[in-house]
Amino acid sequence: MNTPRDPLFDRRHILKWAGASAAFAGVPVLTAAGATHPAASQEAFFDIRRYGATGDGKTLDTKAIQSAIDEAEHAGGGTVLFPAGMYASYSIHLKSNVAIYLDQGATLLAASVPLEGTTSGGYDAAEPQGAWEPYQDYGHNHWHNSLLWGENLHDVSILGPGRIWGKGLSRGHDRDTDLPDTTKPGVGNKAIALKLCRNVTLSDFQILQGGWFGILATGVDNLTIDNLRIDTNRDGMDIDCCRNVRVSNCTVNSPYDDAICPKSSFALGYPRSTENLTITNCFVTGNYEIGSVLDGTWKPMPPSFAGRATGRIKCGTESNGGFRNLTISNCVFESCRGFALETADGAIVEDIVFSNIAMRNITQAPMFLFLGSRMRGPKDAAIGTLRRVILSNIVSSHAGQLPSLMVGIAGHPIEDVKISDVYLHQRGGADATMAAIQPPIKENAYPDPGIYGELPASGFYFRQVRNLEVSNVEVATEATDARPAFCLQDVEGADFFRVRVPSGAIAFDLRAARNFRSFGSLSLPDARLDVAENRKI
Question: Looking at residue 118, what is its pLDDT?
Fold first, then answer.
């Protein structure tokens, strides 16, 4: 059959590039006249404009978008095309074997609630949850109150290079009452939410103002997130209870919350670990006005915002199921908080690599490893573990006064940590009073470096750690600092090799250290101590 195809549908390059599986024998392809015919190439495209979408940014296009998705599912799979235009919508239900393709110049707009000129309508209602809802923040318990959501799906893609603009989404709380405003009828708070799905690809598009979560993936396996640009008002992406995940080549600007946040909550009603996860070649920051990263103007936040930026990579705080086999590498942190690895709710955290990292203007601790006993979860849960961690090839410049921290609890130390080839450039300027501080015990607090207040070290503070190896690490300070470079409290088995500290500074403050050794440093004498109580070197 020689009927000419509408140019809007002649996009073989999309499928070849995206890997969307639409090659099904006998799949009909819509022509410009709306008729169908067997496609000689067996490709299927479903242009939402053919289903009635206007793309004017004012008319609600939810029904047209959903019709195209449903038709693609009915055909056995295909690609739903958003051509250039702005498509206002409420909740869209993703389907298995269906790819969403946002073409250049296309914007999927999260409509306001209520839509201008109406008094009702909105996003799907948040689904009811069980007795475990208090174990994590409200937003983690619900997926349906989102712009794009899917549950128990397989082989799903959202592809670029267009944009998702969560303009009408909530940040999650009413600013006046601090209560979840998503309990109000019709309010949505996530750009993309996926639950118990597999074989998911999110690639090349942009998210502007993603709401509480730009992406919330819970129990999603075989997940690929690549080349996204996210410029948002809360978390960029939360990867919760997921396995076999690849996050790569992403830029996330999130001044008010975390950028990339692996978690292992109890939101599924049972603990499930996040494991086999790689995060690589990503840039995270909290330094820029929302929207300015996407439009390329890169406008810094006002000076009054200095010190409050979040924008980091953080594993936690929700940590019921655990983190196993995680690699975070080749990433850049700028004007944000540092890397955090936390188990506060009983998680087993093990086999973690954090390497090839460049950090600049870190507003809190460059690195924070925490094993605590908040235990927000079932009462029978045991305190977790944190072990087998490698931190290597890391440079941090112009960080604040807080040092990096590694803190466990009595009877449950952090174990088997290797730190190598690290340069920490801190602001410094602390006096002798700060050097004598005894930090409080905060094992059941919300895990954050700031909970301890000022700390008695300029580079690293270690407490309740066992089997620690530190090699080729230098601590430098902009201003003279009276604190030691390293403070060790209740640490067993600490081996330091070739370390450098600021000229004239104390290298080690040993507050209950056992089996301590330091050797091979140019400006420090070798030392080996079986027991050291209140000793400085």
Answer: 64
